[in-house]
Amino acid sequence: MNVDRLRSQEVLANWPDLAARQVTVWLTHQDHCQQLKLQNGQLALTIPEGGACCLIEGDLPPCIPRQREIRHEAPRRPIDCAELDWKVTRLDDNSLVVDLAEFRLDDGRWQGPFPVLAIKDYLDRSRFAGSVALRFCVKFSDEKPSSPPLKIIVEGSAEPGVEVYWNGRQLETDDDNAATWRDPHWRLLPISSDWIDLENSIEVQIDGFRPQNVVASDPRDRLGTDLESLLVLGDFSVTAEEIDGPQNWNGQREYHTDTPLAEWLPPQPMRYFRGPFTMGPAKQLSTGDVTNQGLPFYSGRLTYKTELHLAELAGGSCLLRLEDLQAPVVEVTVNGKSAGCLAWPPYELDLSPWLQRGVNILELTLYHSLRNLLGPHHHPLGEPVYVTPGSFTPEGIEDWLELLLADKRAPRWRADYSFVQFGLEL
Q: Exposed end of the chain (fewer CB within 10 Å): N or C?
């Protein structure tokens, strides 16, 4: 077994008692076994990063599933992905996270904008009980979307005493049949196209804020009234000023061994943007990272589609190899049939069982995580490998909002936004 997740290992297996006899080799990252001859009782193997190898004398024993076809070593023909013409398509709604808001207590004056979590923390610590209003701002660059309409999510919008307004127009929040997204408590509130201006105000009014009470027996009182970021969904792009920031685990160390994370994990390329974010028409996507192509908060799927022309079907394996992949999972289909999924290195897949002479339709579907949607976006390390509830607020700072009200910078907090890259370079 190769426990190194970054580098393959060359192994020389010694089996002197078998001399020149055959052994069955199963590399766990492949979907088949191979029968190979020993040379002077030795066998040279390459075990890929994170892979393992099983060596069996002779043929497959009955305990190994027979559907694993035994194949003799055959030529491996890689597909030259760079020479193919790829079309990249977003399959799901894009999203914008607005985590800054102005706030007003009872009939007081508006203050901010400040991080919503800082406002929530302040109200809980001060044991505030009364009316709270949040005001978010959503801007379009120079062109408003036409159709389909936008949708917004205000967590807790269906709770009693909560009202939501878009540019002064009250939205219906008590529809029990309203559609949800990602979470059963995330109700979608549709925004008609003719309600939208270049600059839009979304106001959330809460009559009867309840501060958090960690010793209360009632869960509603224990958690208190929830204040969360505003989510906007639809067919649009999101842009902001890109800046530099920490990359590739930023010197973090593995917790148990106190060794650099860069020795344990593959590189983690990041992108950083300085707000405010603005929305605009959806963009045509290209190969590579899409967080800087209008999709920084995106948590859905991408497809990469192309045509592969084969004049004839040669022997051996036709190997799809993805070198620069930034996605948790990739599903591969050939001519409409699933050829498998790739989720860890080496990102290789034999497509020969699904290929035909002539034109073949090759489609890669990349699945994202919720990391860029939910964050943490403001952690000083950029991408912390260990994420806890404390990763979303300045660690050890109890007077967070008070610092901001005094126009001071909160330590251990990034005002800009960090995102992991998502996409495939071909």
A: N
DSSP line for 296-361 = TT--SEEEEEEEEEESS--SSEEEEE-SEEESSEEEEEETTEEEEEE-SSS-EEE-GGG--SEEEE
- Give the burial class of 328: count Cβ atoms within 10 A of its Cβ; 0-12 exposed, 13-18 middle, 19 or more buried: middle
Question: Quick one: average pLDDT of 269-287?
Answer: 95
At residue 70, the pLDDT reads 40
The answer to whether 298 and 95 have CB atoms below 8 angstroms apart is yes
Per DSSP, the residues of 389-420 read: GGGGS-TT-S-HHHHHHTT-PPSS--SSEEEE
- What whole-number distance in Å separates Cα of residue 255 and Cα of residue 242? 31
CA distances from 330 to 170, 363, 416 (A): 42, 10, 30
d(CA 52, CA 28): 6
Average pLDDT over residues 263-291: 94
Alpha helices in 130-228 (DSSP H): 219-223
**Res 91: pLDDT:** 97
Cα–Cα separations (whole angstroms), residue 240 to 42, 228, 237, 275, 371: 58, 22, 10, 6, 19
Cα separation, 134 vs 103, whole angstroms? 5
* H/E element, 96: strand 94-98
